[in-house]
Structure formats: structure tokens, C-alpha cells
Design brief:
Elements: E1 11-12, E2 28-31, E3 33-38, H1 51-60, E4 63-68, H2 79-92, E5 96-99, E6 101-102, H3 108-113, E7 121-124, H4 137-146, E8 153-156, H5 160-171, E9 176-178, H6 184-195, E10 200-204, H7 206-210, H8 237-245, E11 252-253, H9 262-265, H10 280-289, H11 295-309, E12 319-329, E13 348-358, E14 361-365, E15 368-369
Parallel strand pairs: 3-4, 4-5, 6-7, 7-8, 8-9, 9-10, 10-11
Antiparallel strand pairs: 1-2, 2-12, 12-13, 13-14, 14-15
The structure holds zinc ion.
Zinc ion binds at residues 37, 39, 69, 256, 258.
Length: 383
Amino acid sequence: MPRSLGAAGHSFQTPRVAQGGSLFLPMLRLPGLIDPHVHLRDPGAVHKEDWDSGTAAALAGGFTTVLAMPNTRPPIFDEATLNLSLDSARQKARCDYAQFLGAGPANAATAASLAPRAAGLKMYLDATFGDLRLDDMLLWQAHFRNWPADMPIVVHAESRSMAAAILLAAIHDRSVHIAHVSLKEEILLIKAARERGLRVTCEVAPHHLFLTDDSAGEGLLRGHPGRSEVRPRLARRVDVAALWENLDVIDCFATDHAPHTLEEKDSAEPPPGFPGLETALPLFLTAVHEGRLTMEQITEKCHTNPRRLFNLPAQPETWIEVDPDAGYEIRAADQHTRCGWTPYEGWKVRGRLRRVVLRGREVFKDGELSASPGTGRNVRSPG
Ligand SMILES: [Zn+2]
């Protein structure tokens, strides 16, 4: 077992000498990663993901906790639908988890009564999201008023909707967490709001850090416009640069893992979203190798901050081990997500997940999963 070396949250294993005298490079140890934004399609679209395959992908990506979004079919917005998702998770999940409730036009009181059992409240404040769409700011206010002040509210609110969400949170004297920030104007507004003392936090998805609107012409995305569809859309280089320049404003990295099959992505009405659980860590480790990110920032944005912002319990005897120098090529064929593709197919990355230990048990080693369905725990369930 690697030694723990103090407060930095990760440590180096003592180098070992292999047969023949060559030296294994040190293995790096990080805490179990937390992904506060995944779509697991269960219930309603389990042909492309479910609690089993999605949490397998999580562990294979170094995530030992995932927080699942509520825009399933049916959406998770009351006690019956929350039980539907949590029953499925209890039987299938391989890593720890919690389920968000969706804010609908008429469920503010019901949702608030279920808050202790939920990861948080998710509000969709623009674009069309079916039953969970909130067109009227009076509907937003009902949720800001009812939802417990010490439980997280996460909003999908782009550009000017984001500014409105920050204002309403301030009026109701509460915090708000902005999902998947992608634009320069957004990250700079969050920075300015914080400088004025407003309680706003945010997350950024890997595809908004590693892909731009030019990426649609490259690799697996070339010639298939539907494959690049994602909300928020892939942004301009100037936006991506602004995110990298303001890493200190970004509280969390969140994959927004949103699996769809290639057949769906190539259809006449391509659904937005990319799978992301198994590619985030190698992309971040590659950025460390390039000097754009530090291991401390990975630990902070993928563990320390999401754990604090979402009030998550400690996972005892839980860690991941990465080989920071192992180079490899991303291939969908090696992945566990059911959707069967990745926008990063063929990307050469540097830094590989070797091992995951969850609550004292080895659950992943060198590409092989050994966690059984049903062994994951609901982090909002007492005991
Ligand atoms: Zn999402």
C-alpha cells in the first residue's frame, strides 16, 4: 500500500526495481474522485447507460462517488420517482452515489421535503428540458425560497440566465452552484460576483477545457455534426482560454457525462452530450504533464471542493493510484460506458489510472473491474 505523505492529498510510492534492473516510475496516490454531475439514463434509456454501466465507467475513470442528474424518463421530481431511481441504484451501483431532484413548475414544497435524501436540487433555467422547464422567474423563486439553505442548488443557466440566477440567489440570501460554465463572460461574471461577496460556486466540464467549436472538424467528430452537439455548446478558443486563465475561480471539474449512442448522435435530431467519466482523469493528467494544471488542482477540484460543496461524507480507506508517465491512446473499445464511443477516440494521453480502492477493497486494477453491482452506497442514506 502506498504511504501517505501529509496534507497534499496524494503521495508517492517508493520506486521498485523490476526484474532486469529497470526502475518502475513512482505511482501517484489521490483520494477517490467525486463527479458531481453525471447522467446515468436510469430509468428510461438504459440501452445507453444505467446505474450498473455508468458506475462501472465511474470507477474505471477514478471516480468513487457520482451525483446523478434528474432529467431521466420519467424525471426524478417527487417521492415515487426518487424511490424508482434509488431502488435501481441500490441494486446496480458499483460506486457511491446520490441522486439529484429536479425542480419542476409545481414541486417546490415536495422537493424541499425530500431534500435530506437528495444530492441537491437541479434547476434547468434555459433551453428545453421537458417536464423540468421553468420559464417564469416566479417559479424559480418558489424553489429558492423552499429549498433548505444548507443543501445545494445547482442551476443549468447559461449567459444572461446565469446572471439572473445569481441575482435571485442573492435576493434569497443563499448560495447557488452554476453547472458547466463554458463562456468567458460567465467565468468573469462569477469572479466579479464573488469579489462582491455573493455566494456563487461553479463547475467546468472537461469538454469545455479540451475541445473548442473548431473540434467539430476533427477526428471522430468530423463529418458528423450531431456528434459535436452538447449543451452548453463547445465554445470559442477565447472562451476556452478564459477558463484556463481563471482556474482559481473554478471550484469543481464535473464531467457532465451524458451518454448517447452513435446511432442517436448521427440521427436527424441528435441529442446533446458526450460520455466523459473515463476520459476526464487522463485528460487532466495530460494537462499536468504539459504544465497547465497541477496534481493539487486535480485533488482540489475533483475531491476536496465537491466534497465540501455537496456535504459528502468521508470514504474511509478509499484512494486511486495513477501512473503519471504512462502514455496511451484513448479507445472507446476499452471503456465501460454502454454508449460505445468517445469524442476523444485516438487521443494520445499521458497518465493512466492503475488501481482504485473503495472502502478497503480493490475494485479496479489495470483495466479490470472487480466491484459487484449493488456494492455502491447511497451517501445520503443514514448508516
Ligand atoms: Zn448535464
